Amino acid sequence: MKKVLIADDDAHIRTLLRTVLTQEGYRVVEARDGDEAAARLAESPVDLAILDVMMPGRSGLDLCTDIRASYDIPVILLTAREQLTDKEAGYAHGTDDYITKPFEPRELLFRMNALFRRYSLASSEKIRLNRLTVDRKNHEVTDGDAVLLLPLKEFELLAQLAEYPGRLFERGELIRLVWGADYEGDERTVDVHIKRLRQRFADYGDEFAIRTVRGIGYKLEVARK
């Protein structure tokens, strides 16, 4: 049974989500603010977090950043604001999805299921990009019997993006995940490596594409066959 964290200072929202999710077979952990949510995460792991953006103490954005640094779980942000700048801020802090209040509970369930499928794909050692396979264990990309050799950092960057197809990664996050927190270079390193990957896989545009989200970062999209 999957466990879901709900962090929202609105008791009505927590009650609604608790009712809907328990009916669907989820276990629910609740928090009234970001600090309490962080404590709940430290006490026991969860499979997905639903966070209100505006909460007392630690905001949903800050908590999302903390989760990205320490946990490998899907995150959905809830907000009463629909401006594009607010959504940009959410994705820049590492959220996987973004839902505006008021929302239909069934839509939330659909999005949760999609995220669980995406993260389930990432749990395997081999990631499929249609006819291409990214083998994280052997650090190689294959097309059938053909092996495509990549420099280490290019491979690690491709694998990081391919683990979570459709998820937007900001440049700073990719630096931390691929090059490490102590890396002293700047974020343009990511741009250079993305350019090289695009050139290297120029003939595989029908299999996947690395998209640029201006001012934020990159995401990998797998072509539907």
Automatic annotation (TrEMBL):
Residues 3-116 form the Response regulatory domain. Residues 124-222 bind DNA. It comes from the Bacteria. Pfam families: Response_reg, Trans_reg_C. The keyword Cell wall biogenesis/degradation does not apply. The modification 4-aspartylphosphate is found at D52. Residues 124-222 form the OmpR/PhoB-type domain. Coiled coil: none annotated. It is found in: Cytoplasm. The keyword Transmembrane does not apply. Keywords: Activator, Cytoplasm, DNA-binding, Phosphoprotein, Transcription, Transcription regulation, Two-component regulatory system, Virulence. Member of the two-component regulatory system HssS/HssR involved in intracellular heme homeostasis and tempering of staphylococcal virulence. Phosphorylated HssR binds to a direct repeat sequence within hrtAB promoter and activates the expression of hrtAB, an efflux pump, in response to extracellular heme, hemin, hemoglobin or blood. This is Heme response regulator HssR. It comes from Saccharibacillus alkalitolerans.
